[in-house]
Amino acid sequence: MNVNSDRYVVGVDYGTLSGRAVVVRVSDGAELGSAVHEYAHRVIEDALPGSGVRLGPDWALQSPADWIDVLRNAVPKALADAQVAAEQVVGIGTDFTACTILPATADGHPLCEEFPERPHAWPKLWKHHAAQPHADRINALAAERGEAWLPRYGGKISSEWAFAKGLQLLEEDPEIYERADRWIEAADWIIWQLTGVETRNVCTAGYKAVYQDGGYPSEDFLAALNPAFSGFTRKLGQGPSGTDGNKARLAPLGGLAGHLTARAAEWTGLPEGIAVAVGNVDAHVTAAAADAVRPGQMVAIMGTSTCHVMCSDQLAEVPGMCGVVRDGIVPGLWGYEAGQSAVGDIFGWFVDNCVPASYAERAAEAGVGLHEYLTSLAAAQKVGQHGLVALDWHGGNRSVLVDHTLSGVIVGQTLATRPEDVYRALIEATAFGARTIVETFEAAGVPVEEFVVAGGLLKNRFLMQTYADVLRRPLSVIGSDQGPALGSAIHAAVAAGAYPDITAAAAAMGKREAAAYVPDAERADAYDRLYAEYRRLHDHFADGEMLHRLRAIRNEASA
The Carbohydrate kinase FGGY N-terminal domain covers which part of the protein (predicted)? Predict the structure, then answer.
């Protein structure tokens, strides 16, 4: 009898707008129950709750109270949905968006609870891009000094990451910076709340906090940015070794972070003392859920944005990648990350702001949603029929240009252009962006042998076929609708000792369908012509000069 057949784990996925819990059988990865809890505050972009203090352009915050509410609501509901007794649950794992990061006291108390009227006291969500000037300074200084860690991030670090956001905190609210004993990823903060033990995981430290070869950037480098920034790495906490500062040791993925406290057991309805897995990032745990943790398998997690992750047994410098981290996806391999800052968000923006009411009426008459209706109209066209090409930079460019102050461009519109034309061109633009990433990896000597898709956009079959045609390669698809939560559950199974490592657990509990979408040769040839135009447009606007000027004019007018 399989000892795991009557044991279960819980995975909790913290997304941008909600948190999801799933109950999973340890023996085979069967998902038996799930529940979603919508964040009360969603994304805080315009004004702080309560005080009404206005936020500037490109700000995006969250509330830690929402994260705790996920534990209180989604986990018990998922257990009830699964009809699994809490006593049969042996572990819990979580994943988070990243870099979503917050200032806290030494005992983990979020500063926004003490200073609710101060914007910098609140957690900065991953898509907070107001630290771009600070990222620019970090990149310029690192390039000037020849910092060895810079090539590990494709030559630029992002405004989304820990150091850029930390420098912004210091320079815009030095009092909150001084009060912050900890600058901690939400991925690690939630584990602290579950276990009562502070840990820092190797994934977020490596990809988002520039931790390479056993250390963070030097105190000398940080002091050159701003003398008061020299002690910043002390805010990044202590590793399990008890060694703090630049040489902190980090918790390995799939490791045991600690055990569920009585307080957290009361929140969740789970047994006190069960295993709690080391924190992780939503994209990176999804690789395990798709059983795609071997070299050459690129997993694209496609939702509001897209994150591309891939394991490799070789180290290379890939221009514009988000990072390469040893043990960053599974222990023993190099983990690569790249991404597109907006994908589903682009389609949502277009439908919310650019489609006439008559289309919504027709969609309602057809009994479908507006996205589905536009997709059906777009799918009826031949490749290139709309005469358009677009740049997918409405949320900036994460890879390969690493510039979040770039903006979207649509070329070729005429008085005959219809909403479905633009909608299709935007879908194609995101596929062209993905092809740019794949080609950049392969040109750097990191082959992509299988392209695996996960995330909410899997539901759009036309979009998936477009990606297969544009990429000129088959697409494999994850066998779960809730990949991050399943991946977190797989990590929980490893932390609970049910499997020896993530690779073994992924093989038993993960699932994917190989070559679910196959490229059509005729459409692929046609897309090659459009892709060539996309690359010309991409390279023309890559320096950002015009787009930066337009953004500056906007910001000045909005001040």
Answer: 8-206
Give the Cα-Cα-Cα angle 398, 11, 501 (nearest 5 degrees).
85
Nearest to 513 by CA among 479, 488, 544: 479
**Cβ atoms < 10 Å from Cβ of 148:** 11
Q: For the packed helices 419-443 and 461-471, what is the interaxial angle rounded to 10 degrees? A: 40
Pairing type for strands 275-277 and 89-96 reads parallel
CA distance 509 to 407: 40
Strand partners, 89: 8
Question: Beta partners for 476?
Answer: 452
Residue 35 and residue 73 in contact, taking contact as beta carbons nearer than 8 Å: yes
Q: Which tokens belong to 49? A: 């709750």
212 alpha-carbon distance from chain centroid: 20
Distance from C-alpha of 220 to C-alpha of 245, rounded to nearest angstrom: 13
What are the tens digits of pLDDT across the range 182-219? Answer: 999 999 999 999 999 999 999 999 999 999 999 999 99
56: tokens are: 């500037």
* Type of residue numbered 465: Q
| CB within 8 Å of 242: residues ≥ 6 apart | none
Instruction: Please work out, in degrees rounded to the nearest 5, the angle formed at the alpha carbon of residue 298 by the alpha carbons of 433 and 128.
Output: 55
Q: How many angstroms separate the first and last alpha carbons of the chain?
A: 67
Cis previous bond, 43, omega within 30: no
Tokens standing for residue 73: 């609501």
pLDDT in tens, 34-90: 999 999 999 999 999 999 999 999 999 999 999 999 999 999 999 999 999 999 999
Task: Give the Cα separation of 435 and 488 in Å (integer).
Answer: 28
Burial 159-180 (b: 16+ CB within 10 A, else e): bbbbbbbbbbbbbebeebbebb
**Other beta carbons less than 10 A from residue 316's beta carbon:** 14
